Amino acid sequence: MTPNALVVGELHDGHLAASTLEVIGVARALAGGAVAGLVLGAGAKAAASEFGRFGVPEAYALDDPHLDAAPAGARAAPVAATAREVGASLLLTASTTAGRDLLGRLAVAWDAAVATGVTEATAFEGGVRVRRPVFGGRATETIRLEGSRVAIATRPHAFAAVAESPVPCVVHEVPAPVLSEAYTAPQRTGVAVTARGAGPSLTDASIVVSGGRGVRAPENFRLVEELAASLGAAVGASRAVTDAGWRPTSFQVGQTGRAVSPQLYIAVGISGAIQHIVGMVSSRVIVAINSDASAPIFRVADYGIVGDLFQIVPALTAEVRRVRGA
Amino acid sequence: MEIVVCVKPVPDAETRLRATSDGTRLDPEGVKFVLAGYDESAVEQALLLKESIAGSRVHVVAFGPAPRTEEVLRATIALGADQATWVDSGADAGAEPVRAARAIAGAIASAPHDLVLCGKQANDDESGLVPAALGELLRVPEFSCVVDLRWDSATSRFRFQRPIETGVESWSAPAPLVVGLQQAWNDPRTAKLPAILKSRKAAIGKVAAASASSESRVVAERFELPPPRTGAKLIEYKTPEDAAQQLVRILREEAKVFP
Ligand SMILES: Cc1cc2nc3c(=O)[nH]c(=O)nc-3n(C[C@H](O)[C@H](O)[C@H](O)COP(=O)(O)OP(=O)(O)OC[C@H]3O[C@@H](n4cnc5c(N)ncnc54)[C@H](O)[C@@H]3O)c2cc1C
């Protein structure tokens, strides 16, 4: 396989997203040849030069605000064209909603062997070998992606962010695609930025603290939020909480909510129904706080405290604040 | 409205997973296969749309081997689907997602489809690739992570929301459309016994999967199960403060999850 790699980055507040920095690290480790970057959407041109800070000397930018409000499929053709232009045999992106949409498209549009949710990747003669959790983290599969075009999406937090190593970066502009009627007809009619407290977003956070029905009333959810704040964590919730309207559905973790895989997941007053488990079981370390020692959450947790959350959680918040000197 | 729902048989959540003796993949022996969780929602949503839009039909399509694929298709007929098509993967089937999408696209491209509904991902491989690959193959827009999918007959457009990482997007789009569904309006219904009995005799259309022409290959190499979780290490404590101190020490020194 020819050794060049293309990183398709995502923008976050006009800058390369944290997950993109992880992808760059993987690309530099895997590519035998040059690594190039690509970003699309409003502000792409300004952000593209940031690739240089992370040792990527060449970047492509498709600075077209229309793309942000177009269906994901509108990106496939320009991405595939850029991959051909840089002579990439490997394309990498983050396994986010947009990243997975892109890979499904590229499997066809770029005729590539693809895998999402990748947590380990090594190159071999003729392709890339990847490992990825399956069955909600109950198993891991190793698959070989073979052929002269391979695309992988790496799971956020599974890889370390690349260290800064600035090089000069040449930015090329990619012409905007001419979209067929099918892709211009859909209209994005609104965007509501996720309701969340201060702190990181649920899917980006390296620590998540979630509360369940055990907190008993909406005003008690403050206990969960204070623990999260002390840890710099995002706040999540079980469906019992979002169904009751104690917190918006954007907080929900699980089958019908978000899937998260932070370094640390703390479940407070959550029983551990299978639909909740599938959304958090691939977290690296799981802690459960529950008054019922037989709650299923303790079967997937690494550490557990059997006790009353109304006593344990405030003590934990105080202890975290103490050790962090805050 | 012609609604096509793509479904996949996956191991029941309670099934004990085991690798084949060569260790390359899941051993299907003795595994109970059921409709994937998000696919159940997709079927439910299709039935709800059918009930609210006069003259609608629900056609369920599944790619996979015998007998499990036929069984889940029968289950969808018992729930109320009008037509079922089994795209036979042959016996060797690792249902590699892009291969599945190509096979399904081949089977439905010439069948009427105003809406192609998939679960946003299957509970086994969790790839989430099929909706986007189908969109590309059928040359129609595709949206993943969709909730609150409605048909607005006044404007002849679908309206829906997508809770994604950065926030919740609202969209409107005309047919045809491919949707990766996250959630139906309500939890999936269960089939009634008479309908289940009747579905046993229902006709299931069968087509052979078109052979793939790509030089790219995905090869299963290893399927590993982590050592069974022994359950949480429970912290023994005297006071809440004691529990908190122990946990924080473990998280910093043993698990090393925060400084
Ligand atoms: C199709 C479908 C999709 C679903 N999707 C999701 C999903 O995405 N996410 C999700 O979370 N659920 C989902 N569910 C719901 C799921 O089945 C459970 O009902 C839900 O997760 C339960 O939430 P819970 O653990 O907060 O509540 P419960 O199951 O009621 O558990 C509350 C826990 O709090 C503990 N507790 C009570 N008081 C205290 C105290 N003082 N101190 C400590 N602990 C205490 C109890 O021991 C108990 O274990 C779904 C269900 C269906 C059918």
Description of the structure:
The complex is a heterodimer of chains A (326) and B (259). The radius of gyration of chain A is 21 Å and the shape is elongated. With 326 residues, chain A is an alpha/beta fold. Helices cover 27% and strands 29% of the residues of chain A. Chain A has helices at 18-30, 44-48, 65-68, 76-85, 97-109, 181-184, 221-231, 239-243, 274-277, 297-300, 309-323, and strands at 4-8, 11-12, 15-16, 35-40, 58-62, 88-94, 113-118, 120-124, 127-134, 139-146, 150-154, 170-173, 187-193, 207-211, 234-237, 264-268, 285-290, 303-306. Chain A has two domains: 5-184, Rossmann fold; 207-324, Rossmann fold (3-Layer(aba) Sandwich), CATH 3.40.50.1220. The relative contact order of chain A is 0.11. The mean pLDDT of chain A is 93. In chain A, the strands form four sheets. Chain A has a seven-stranded parallel beta sheet with strand order 7-11-6-1-4-5-12, sandwiched between helices. Chain B has 259 residues and is of the alpha/beta class. Chain B has two domains: 2-211, HUPs (Rossmann fold, 3-Layer(aba) Sandwich); 232-259. Chain B is built from six helices and 13 strands. In chain B, the strands form two sheets. A nine-stranded mixed beta sheet of chain B has the order 9-8-7-10-6-1-4-5-11, with helices on both faces. In chain B, helix 2 packs across helix 5 and helix 3 packs parallel to helix 4. The mean pLDDT of chain B is 92. At the A-B interface, helix 5, strand 7, strand 9, strand 10 and strand 13 of A face helix 1, helix 3, helix 4, strand 7 and strand 8 of B. Strand 18 of chain A pairs parallel with strand 13 (233-234) of chain B, so a sheet runs across the interface. The complex binds flavin-adenine dinucleotide. The site of flavin-adenine dinucleotide has 27 residues of chain A, from helix 8, helix 9 and helix 11.
